[in-house]
Amino acid sequence: MKRTQFRNGYTFLLSVLFVGAIAMTVTGTMVLLGWLTMRTSATIESSTQAFELAMTCAERGLLSLFEDGGYGGYEEFSIGEGVCDILPVGGAGNENRTLCVEGTKGGVTRRLEIVVQRVLPSIRILSWQEVDMFTFCTYN
């Protein structure tokens, strides 16, 4: 009879260890998933803010181009915790101008490339798109 009690205790101990290992694995997985979710959320927020910074610089660049046909770009603005850059404006005169801008926030950079068909009497945009790499503009 004593031998049966010893086996029951041994079985119980192994069951507790097995359930504990499973609980630790599930807890570790939940902590890791929570951390990854927070990190992804921060990256998405930085990306959205970088896009808004790029849009702000695009509007400012277009306004500057409209007011001064010889506007050349080369500007950087710090807005909050982010930065937006207006790269050198391509082309000359009233037609076929290119405006490239970057918005950067938290290590995330978003780029807009704008091809302006005509500046005056009103701005006519041929294309306005987000790009990974500029094709019509050059980096500083």
What descriptors fit this protein?
140 residues; alpha+beta; Pantoate--beta-alanine Ligase, Chain: A,domain 2; 5-stranded antiparallel sheet; 1 helix; 5 strands
How would you describe this protein?
This protein has a single domain, classed as GSPII I/J protein-like (Pantoate--beta-alanine Ligase, Chain: A,domain 2), CATH 3.30.1300. A hairpin with a 2-residue loop joins strand 3 (95-105) and strand 4. With 140 residues, the protein is of the alpha+beta class. The protein is 47% helix and 29% strand.
How is the topology of this model organized?
Elements (H helix, E strand, L loop, with lengths): L1 H66 L7 E5 L2 E5 L8 E11 L2 E11 L5 E8 L9
Computed Rg: 29 Å
Largest sheet report: 5 strands, antiparallel
Q: Specify the structural class.
A: alpha+beta
Give the termini separation. 86 Å
- Mean pLDDT across all amino acids: 89
CATH fold node name: Pantoate--beta-alanine Ligase, Chain: A,domain 2
Listing every helix as H and every strand as E from the N terminus to the C terminus, the arrangement reads HEEEEE
Total number of beta strands: 5
Supply the CATH superfamily name: GSPII I/J protein-like
Beta-strand portion reads 25-35%
Percent helix range? 40-55%
Tally of individual helices: 1
Which parts are unreliable, with pLDDT below 50 for 5 consecutive residues or more? none
Please state how the strands of the largest beta sheet are arranged side by side.
1-2-3-4-5
